[in-house]
Amino acid sequence: MQDYTAKARRLRIAALFAAAFGVSATLAGPALAEILDLEKDELKFGFIKLTDMAPLAIAYEKGFFEDEGLFVTLEAQANWKVLLDRVITGELDGAHMLAGQPLAATIGFGTKAHIVTPFSMDLNGNGITVSNEVWEMMKPHIPAGEDGKPVHPIKADALKPVVEKFKADGKPFNMGMVFPVSTHNYELRYWLASGGIHPGFYSTSDISGQIKADALLSVTPPPQMPATLEAGTIHGYCVGEPWNQQAVFKGIGVPVITDYEIWKNNPEKVFGLTKEFAQENPNTTLAVTKALIRAAKWLDENDNANRAEAVEILSKSEYVGADAEVIANSMTGTFEYEKGDKRDVPDFNVFYRYYATYPYYSDAVWYLTQMRRWGQIAETKDDGWYAETAKSVYRPDIYLQAAKLLVEEGLAEETDFPFGTDGYREPTDAFIDGVPYDGRKPNQYIDSLPIGLKSGQTIEGSDVVGG
To answer: Is residue 440 part of a domain?
Structure first.
């Protein structure tokens, strides 16, 4: 028998007592569900200080990990690379990860390791912020509404003349993103390219991502984004919260667009662990997934009624460590763009609704298409490769097994989960440029995007060849 935490042991004893004396599951209560036979019950998970790590914090603070017999330690990490490396070495059992990290590691872009994800942590949650100087240069190119405020969404078309002015003056236009395989990198690139601004290619010999670039993108850790912007090292950035709202509060920049407006209800972070861990600890992986699903449900239930409490939890120094007021600016269903221009964005952070926690193959495929589009995947792959890679990393089978147990335990509704899906979302054109995406036809999608590599093309030196 595992040495469970005191609370979990009490729950297990109560469940066994209920079973022995014929107490019905209803009377015994949903929290008395039998704990799985865990292979490992003491776990350490990593995260980066962003509001979308919330499912981990809530699963810990609300006792959902303990309910599953898990004794979990949460530990903030210095940056995404350190976090991934520590999962690979086993120093961390799992972590809050960029959606692109498990995919990139598995295909060998950067670090090579087979990482899997049974749980998608959220939808949306990012924004693009520019400096006050750049904002003033953009404003003449942005239409205003009847109230005099800018009409949203703001397209990169308004940034293009600014970038061209920098180029004419012989100055680089620098922007920050958090990691080469981050959602932020791909969202920023998508937005820029949709406005005719080339964000640059990667190649096997040049991993800067700046080949042929009009805007030069480079890595800046999320908490350092506002200070780097204020110092003038970068002119804008794409990051998760609370670091866009922090720029507003500090008066140093203006968020111009959210990722919800770039791709409505886009997948964001995932919970990642090694394939070996999942294979060697199947019940533990299942228990972790159950606890995270419950945490996501708590975050969204009753029309976000728990968000104020979540903000207080996340503001603690051991989690995000930003002022509660700053976190609340986006976490509670609003988003402030220019100072004083606060608008309702109820789906800025989505943790549970719209099947947010289900790891869709089509989400994985989209990230892979962007890796190929910008040269991180150097050569054309057939559609079957995209499907196989997605299925080797995204594990909806584990997710649905966890969901089934929660339904049986009375802790979730069957309608909360997409039982019966083939793992692909329906095709969508809910992007800022309206280009349709079908996860079943990745090459057709890649070839339809105006800027980026096409079928048969590769980067040689600083040139696009083939195709």
So the answer is: no
